[in-house]
Design a protein that fits this description.
With 194 residues, this protein is mainly alpha-helical. It contains four helices and two strands; from the N terminus they run H-E-E-H-H-H. A two-stranded antiparallel ribbon has the order 1-2. The two termini are 50 Å apart.
């Protein structure tokens, strides 16, 4: 049991030593033939995650837009002609009947007028629904355009920051090279000096 603990402790020590080795400011990581510093990798990761997040948001908005568009296109206004036909038939039966009284006729007219009012209200609701659908369509298009513009702006900002970091790294690298060259020159000139 104690040997296992010692083995685990040794592995932890090895990992810490490796982490210290790669935690240097001058660390360069090579991926696919390209060399990156940790700062460049962080900026690249930020850029990629921002773009992917924006694309995911735009995809969800577009998917909702397509779903709503499909529902609007498949909407069929109800056929209300059958109601009017039934009312006409009822009125004809009542008029043809010899026993129809004026109260019954008034009652039928009231029902017919009430139904016609209901039909008008239903038509208004259908028109309002279509109008709201068109407004939602315009709003969704505007939102998609805004998201696309925000993604372009974010991409430009990240590219500018990446260029700035690369320039800073180049300046630091040149300064470091000059210091190393100076030290090498001094060592060659006087090998016994410290």
């Amino acid at each position: 049991m104690s040997e296992e603990i010692k083995s685990v402790d040794k592995k932890i020590d090895d990992l810490e030593a490796a982490a210290k080795k790669y935690a240097s400011k001058d660390t360069v990581i090579s991926i696919g033939g390209y060399e990156f510093t940790p700062a460049k990798l962080m900026v690249a990761f930020t850029l990629i995650s921002s773009i992917l997040g924006g694309l995911y948001g735009a995809f969800n908005v577009y998917k909702d837009y397509q779903s709503m568009k499909k529902q609007i296109q498949e909407y069929v206004t109800p056929d209300l002609s059958g109601i009017n036909e039934r009312l006409v038939k009822i009125e004809e039966r009542i008029q043809s009947s010899e026993k129809a009284s004026s109260d019954t006729m008034d009652y039928v007219r009231d029902i017919r007028n009430g139904l016609q009012g209901d039909v008008r209200e239903l038509a208004k609701v259908v028109d309002d629904t279509e109008r709201r659908g068109r407004e939602l369509d315009r709003d969704l298009r505007s939102t998609v355009n805004t998201l696309e513009a925000a993604n372009v702006t974010t991409l430009r900002e990240v590219n500018a920051r990446l260029n700035s970091v690369e320039k800073e790294n180049d300046v630091n690298l040149k300064s470091l090279e000059k210091k190393v060259d100076d030290k090498i020159s001094k060592a060659w000139e006087n090998p016994l000096a410290k």
